[in-house]
């Protein structure tokens, strides 16, 4: 086990109807003037925005609405948000939505507090020093940004769309309100994308070279087994509150780093995927459903017993002691079948991509002269090989 410091400063407020307490928590964390940030239609149509707005007014808080965040949040709206916050002296950002809205809110918060263009931070040229406080009312169990220390944004630049992440402990939200009932209106495809993403967040940590991490390995397996058990219930009955609740909590724990702080983590699959959602604007979870099993096949040999353990402990595959690789392969097959059973794509073509784009994907990945991943360090040729497998 590696040495670590673990602090989870976000306050989680869980349960039905709790979004009506948003104003109380904004006040608790010092907000007086709020940017209420949200996405396209869903939060407006369901009446959620009005309920949250009323809770802010009840606490005597003033707020400005800024909607229109698109999936794979785009930089122009973020720059607009930064301008509004500066002009209006906003001191708190409340994100009502999923990963895209939360990440957009975090990016605005970075832009307001730091001097440089936020591109400098997302392109890792400079380190941000802080962020305006952000609170969350979560509407989809997926990205885990409600508890994570990161934000992922698509920057539209002259030579293409760069989807890049920025991280820092100060980027965890002050509070996150998790009402599972809010996720009942999700289209099945989005529910499924979220299920893939949260599982991938555990897997990026599960495949590690660090040994003697039994407690967190067992936690990781418990989270994955919970996801596998609850997913079919919500696909069958979108209004199954208890299953939605289990998935929502699993999604938060999948990515608040509880399962990762004691070990080396990989993240190559996420990096490979981000180029797909940048180029094709596909859902991040759908991209992962295609990339992650291919990555697992590509790296199986690195530690066959690790992959076999996943197969046995998570999917209940039979352990073939004579040929553990057989078991490892059965685990990858089970994962792929689970994700496709939810309606997720299997190939690049199903995502809307094509093999001719691989040189573009590699160029945007900026892989030359560096490697991706920690479990197995992938060079440019490895990345190309994996893209060719999709
Ligand atoms: O815009 P609206 O109308 O709200 O529609 C959204 C959107 O189209 C819809 N939706 C959300 N809640 C809904 C709903 N529709 C009906 N009812 C509801 N309750 O769902 C669609 C997808 O929303 P989005 O926020 O994009 O989904 P998700 O939470 O999966 O976020 C994906 C983004 O997060 C990034 C991804 O790369 C992607 O850009 N990630 C962020 C991470 C982080 N900050 O820690 C880590 C992740 O690995 C990931 O990279
Ligand atoms: Zn993810």
From TrEMBL:
UniProt feature coiled coil, ranges: none
Transmembrane residue ranges: none
One Pfam family linked to the record: Fe-ADH
All residue ranges annotated as the Alcohol dehydrogenase iron-type/glycerol dehydrogenase GldA domain in the record: 9-180
Listed InterPro entries: ADH_Fe/GldA, ADH_Fe_C, BDH-like
Source superkingdom: Bacteria
All copies of domain Fe-containing alcohol dehydrogenase-like C-terminal, residue ranges: 191-388
Keyword Hydrolase (UniProt): no
Keyword Oxidoreductase: yes
Keywords (A to Z) from UniProt: Oxidoreductase
Protein's name according to its UniProt entry: Iron-containing alcohol dehydrogenase
Organism: Bariatricus massiliensis
Lineage of producing organism: Bacteria, Bacillati, Bacillota, Clostridia, Lachnospirales
């Amino acid at each position: 086990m590696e040495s670590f410091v673990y602090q989870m400063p976000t306050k989680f407020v869980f349960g039905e109807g709790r979004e009506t307490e948003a104003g109380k928590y904004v006040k608790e964390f010092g907000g007086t003037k709020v940017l209420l940030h949200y996405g396209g239609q869903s939060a407006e149509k369901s009446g959620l925005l009005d309920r949250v707005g009323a809770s802010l007014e009840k606490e005597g808080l003033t707020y400005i609405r800024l909607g229109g965040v698109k999936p794979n949040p785009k930089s122009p709206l973020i720059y607009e948000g930064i301008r509004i916050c500066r002009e209006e002296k906003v001191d708190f950002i409340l994100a009502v939505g999923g990963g895209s809205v939360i990440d957009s809110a975090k990016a605005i918060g970075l832009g307001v507090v730091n001097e440089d263009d936020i591109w400098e931070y997302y392109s890792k040229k400079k380190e941000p020093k802080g962020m305006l406080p952000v609170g969350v009312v979560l509407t989809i169990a997926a990205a885990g940004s409600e508890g994570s220390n990161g934000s992922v944004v698509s920057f539209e630049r002259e030579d293409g769309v760069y989807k890049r992440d920025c991280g820092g402990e100060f980027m965890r939200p002050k509070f996150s309100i998790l009402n599972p009932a809010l996720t009942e209106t999700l289209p099945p495809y989005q529910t499924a994308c979220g299920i893939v993403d949260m599982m991938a967040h555990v897997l990026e940590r599960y495949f590690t070279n660090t040994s003697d991490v039994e407690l967190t390995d067992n936690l990781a397996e418990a989270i994955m087994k919970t996801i596998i058990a609850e997913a079919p219930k919500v696909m069958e009955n979108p209004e199954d509150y208890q299953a939605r609740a289990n998935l929502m909590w699993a999604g938060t724990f999948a990515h608040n780093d509880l399962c990762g702080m004691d070990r080396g983590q990989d993240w190559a699959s996420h990096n490979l995927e981000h180029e797909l959602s940048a180029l094709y604007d596909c859902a991040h979870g759908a991209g992962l459903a295609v990339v992650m099993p291919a990555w697992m096949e590509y790296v199986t040999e690195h530690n066959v017993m690790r992959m076999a353990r996943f197969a046995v402990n998570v999917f209940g595959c039979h352990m073939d002691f004579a040929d553990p690789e057989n078991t490892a392969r059965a685990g990858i097959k089970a994962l792929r079948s689970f994700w496709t059973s939810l309606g997720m794509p299997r190939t690049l073509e199903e995502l809307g991509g094509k093999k001719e784009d691989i040189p573009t994907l590699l160029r945007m990945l900026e892989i030359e002269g560096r490697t991706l991943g920690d479990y197995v360090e992938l060079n440019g040729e490895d990345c190309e090989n994996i893209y060719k497998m999709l």
